[in-house]
Amino acid sequence: MDPSTPADEKERAMQQRIVTHMNADHRDSVIRYLEHYKGLSSFSARNARLEKMDLNSLHVRCGGALYTIPLDPPLSSLKEARERVVQMDREAIAGLGRSEVTVKEYRSPKGFHAVVFGLCLFTYVVFSRRGNVLPGSVVYDYLLKHVPGSSYFAGIQPAVLWLMVGIHAAEVVVMVRRLGRHSVPLLSRLWWMWMGSCFIEGYGSLQRFDALVREKAKQKH
To answer: What InterPro entries does this protein map onto (predicted)?
Structure first.
């Protein structure tokens, strides 16, 4: 005989709705809980998922381990859950020094940014090795020989390559800080997309990222 009561069934259903909602729409908050309340790094917490929430604690599974985060004070009812998880996330954001705006998407280059992206990528490929800018290479024979002054490209190839790498590496450092501030999980797919774009095109990716943050900030107000 099943000893559960209608009240028990209702509570389990409410628990499941909370878990489903948090994992579907607020994974960033769950990740921050582990970072702030359990001291995990952004990388270690990147796959966090809420497994259960009761009146006394949150139970979060990540990397094969189950972490228990006490609720202080405990809830008197699961109806208080929404207010409490929002409050805990605000505390986590403040404690981690993060922005309230979480970036969850990548914006690809369009228009002028797409042109710059293509030119930068082409320059990386062409100047990646000296042989590419010498007669006999496919790039030189079909393209560069028609460009005035292309005979000098072999001499400046190393300088052009390392200048681009140096400038874009500095911009990548800036992007890393922006991604961290806006809770993009370290080494996640989204993190790599922004980082790769920044390394190729540089400043344009930072402009799009900042525009996305401003857009999301307006939506919150």
So the answer is: DUF2470, Haem_oxidase_HugZ-like_sf
